[in-house]
Amino acid sequence: MPGRGKLIAVIGDEDTCTGFLLGGVGELNKNRKPNFLVVEKDTSITEIEETFKSFLARSDIGIILINQFIAEMIRHAIDAHMESIPAVLEIPSKEHPYDASKDSILRRAKGMFSAEDFR
Amino acid sequence: MRVDQQLRLDEQLLLFMDQLEALEEKRHKLNSLIEEGWFSIAKARYSMGNKQVSALQYASEMEPLVYVETSVLEGRTAEFKCERKENKTEELKSNTIEDIGAKETISGLRRRINTIQKGVREEDQETDPQVKTKAESSTPEHRDPLKWFGILVPQNLKQAQSAFKEVITLAAEIASLQSAIIATRKEMQAQTKEQQQKTEKTQPEMKNE
Fold it and tell me: What is the ipTM score, two decimals?
């Protein structure tokens, strides 16, 4: 939409989605698809991947927040995303604390150094 | 020339390290705020009941209250800035108060002149502000996600809401930093490659000498 800011999408477990929706990021109406996905135990990886790709394809989403354990399930799709918008931010979940070594962005930044760079 | 390039590379490296440090700091704050938010939600769930704070309470229609302004700077760096809609709801509330105040003075004047007309007009004026307040209050109430969980919600849920609001603002800052880090990394890689190519060119010349 012209002249309007972009949305923040969330792919996370129930408490994560509840928290961010309380914060005011949620959009849900008959005309447009929701900008969040509550991932439960029975949610398939296909559904998560399709939702993630649909968020990437939307021009009105600026940031995608995703629990890191869910990001691990669709790591190939996240690593394939090279554009700066929308930005993908991995966040911890209640059962899986944040691990910087698994973060796509930090892995890309870490991979650049080798012994030859310091000659 | 080579010294200049190396100086530039050193500057880029220092910038990269500063950015990584800032990112780690913000990440740490983000993670602890999120955990604080979950804890508050759990406390609210404990006092309200398990099913009272869940996805079942989500409204069937939601309007976003926070947007992200994105801009692409030089070198493909993206910048993200959070913007909230809260101020507009506060303005609406203050306007309704003013309107009601003005109408009361008018009805006060009319009372002196005609009692019958006053009766009819007072009813109209009473319904009008009521209708207005309902229409205008329904939009802020409808908008505040806290209302999905009931009219009187425990303080813990409000604390969770404020924690996650802060998380959202921080998330935008982290997204900007991440984009800057990737851009710095790409530039450093390009400069290192350029330097390597130049050293490879000069080495054979030195061997020939």
Answer: 0.89
